[in-house]
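[audit] Reproducing an earlier prediction to check determinism. Same input, same settings, fresh worker. If the tokens differ from the archived copy the diff job will pick it up downstream; this log only records the rerun itself.
[audit] input (416 residues):
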Amino acid sequence: MTYAQTAALAIFAVAYGLALARKVKLATIAVVGAGALIALGVVPWRVALFELIDFDVLAIYGGFLLVSSAFSESGIPRLLAINILRRVHREKYALVILCSITALVSAFMHNVGAVLIMAPVAIELARITRTSLFPYLVGLAISSNAVTTVTMVADPPALILALDMGMQFFDFFWYQGRPGLGTLSIAGVGMALLFLLIPFRHLNARFDLPSDPPPVRYGAALLFGGGVIALALAPYLGIRIGLIGLAVGGLALLLESRRAGAMLREFDWDSFLFITGTFVLVGALETTGLLERLAAIIGASGLRSPAALTGFFVWISVAASAVVDNVPYTILMIPVVRMVAAQVGVSALPLLYAMVVGTGSGGNITPVGATANVFACGILEKQGHRVRTLDFMKLSVPFTLIAVATIHLLIWLVWL
């Protein structure tokens, strides 16, 4: 290997090792790693800043994270949940509906924000029914993570893929005359949510909800809805979608001006800077030709048919994202998938769909595989519950496998 390839691979490997160890802040790892690549001459600073870093992704991610913070404090999602749950008289159905609402909310905002919104309702229901909080919080967490490919703003990997392909908002639902990834994902999530009726079948307690509705503020809801509409219409109006992210983020700070400082302090700067640095770390692997080598290895593995390659990228991504952060993995694999598709002479689109589906769902398997899982388990521990990995996986593994397998089958039927 050349000097540049050796340096890029070594820095990338060290950065990933430190990230997996979780003993150093992710932002520090990625930013220092990117700085080292520039300092060693592997990547010129102008290339890193103006070619490798995708500012549209960063703007949308940051802007909608601020909107989700404002929306979570509006009271509207909780009011909606309570009004729906009043019509249900069995705990198991209430819990599945609660998980479904969480999934719906999470399709348009950060999954941690969705869990944050719904957790108070889950805690209240568990208190009223005198049931363990464990199935409630785990159910919310895995449901919020399951919708990572339902919309292009549901999770960073979906957004990264959409922008890489030049997709518009509605292209996620109908693309090139066929059902898009979002439509197929809705079917997979629906099957997984129905599965929850099996482990929750013993939850038959009746309950009554508080009669007093929570206070609501509608400004955040209007901003949230307006942001989604603007994101959908931006390509038709010739507006760069990164500007939408900046606009809604700024308006969210203005709307919540009294706690704007707290919103900025609570903002997930660690993940934001990690994503920024990761663009450079992975970009160095591509610019030095290492990703092309990886693609050649996969291409020479004997997998030639679109069906075999689709299955490979789905399930290898599920396994990888269970232990590797899904954002850098997505950035890494998009060019690899494209190269493999070109080498074997097949369309890259179904392979990219397969990779992102596996990437988005794999982290759902373990208590530490996704931020929402960590957050939910933290609430459980604060409430005095001991979280065992095996107990968590009894829910998460079949739930995830059902969702991924359904979407995999639909990709095969619709796109191959």
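[audit] rerun output stored. Observation attached for the diff report: The chain has a mean pLDDT of 83.
[audit] end
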